């Protein structure tokens, strides 16, 4: 079954109201071009590095503006709307980096909380401690859509191939990777990682990204893209500015990739041993 899917590229600021209006406009544009599934980037609601500023705009899931708008759009347009993620206030005082999927009737299909926290120290003094604010998820998630089984990941999750392999072995045909990749890491690894996850697992990868200079001072890499199960980039946006990128996907291409290279079936269990080098003049044990 061939359908059109879309990834939206945004440059979310610190005001959720403005960001929601941008999301509405881009989702409608994607639907008008035939998309039956539309994905928004990580942190669609706001990119706000300042903790006090973030907490000032936080809402619970029941009151969140992005969540409400996405449900309305899905019902209005009769499509699947996937909020890549947005910040959600939790009862324990922490924050979830949470994705939401809504069906064509506007009902919530499922949510996914980002599992792996972006705690890194990069070159030129760039440092991030996502775990200081966000509570990591503990459940991998998939959803059965009319045209494919969809798996979920968010941004830094892309560096953990075991998450993707687990989902592919369980029948995922598309895996989503909405992101707000930094420019530094994006230039080095973004496309390589996405294509590797597609090739390793024989799945489509759809990655809606934040792009450009943001109000909170960070710069994100953009280049939202959709990749096929053979690792080919079907469509890609630039490094700055809003964009709607679309591609046709067909679950038959997933089967074809698995038939050509059945690595998911050919994997074997094994043990790992470490040999100890002999001391000078001795022999190995």
TrEMBL record:
InterPro entries: C-N_Hydrolase, C-N_Hydrolase_sf, Nit1/2_C-N_Hydrolase, UPF0012_CS. Belongs to the carbon-nitrogen hydrolase superfamily. NIT1/NIT2 family. It comes from the Bacteria. SUPFAM superfamilies: Carbon-nitrogen hydrolase (SSF56317). Signal peptide: none annotated. CDD domains: nit (cd07572). Keywords: Hydrolase. Residues 1-251 form the CN hydrolase domain. The keyword Disulfide bond does not apply. This is Amidohydrolase. Gene3D superfamilies: Carbon-nitrogen hydrolase. It comes from Shinella yambaruensis. The lineage of its organism: Bacteria, Pseudomonadati, Pseudomonadota, Alphaproteobacteria, Hyphomicrobiales.
